[in-house]
Design brief:
The protein has 118 residues and is mostly beta strands. It is built from no helices and eleven strands.
């Protein structure tokens, strides 16, 4: 059984910052890529950022230069530092991990709400 638990969401004013965390627990043999997605009301879930097991990162154009993804392999945890937040960043943010447990597949967290509003 594998579980991903996100934390760190909340309400922030435009221009503010938040740091999201996602910790994976359970029977994990190998952790591969980890990443963040988000889904705004009435929209499809979209890719935000990803990081490989060796630290190679990718970002959606909409967050480049403002968001930073990182990971702690010893803790099976991925982070998303979000700076210069905009109202259009408002969404539920989901953690994703590709890992090997009994099988290799993608796992999702339950999501954490981020609201950017004055």
């Amino acid at each position: 059984q594998v579980e991903l638990v996100e934390s760190g969401g909340g309400l922030v004013q435009p221009g503010g910052s938040l740091r999201l965390s996602c910790a994976a627990s359970g029977y994990i043999r190998v952790m591969y890529n980890m990443g963040w997605y988000r889904q705004a009301p009435g929209k499809q879930r979209e890719y935000v950022a990803g990081i490989t097991s060796v630290g190679v990162t990718t970002y959606a154009d909409s967050v480049k230069g403002r968001f930073t993804i990182s990971r702690d392999n010893a803790k099976n945890t991925v982070y998303l530092q979000m700076n210069s937040l905009k109202p259009e960043d408002t969404a539920v943010y989901y953690c994703n991990a590709n890992l090997l447990s009994d099988l290799r597949r993608n796992y999702w967290g339950q999501g954490t709400q981020v609201t950017v509003s004055s």
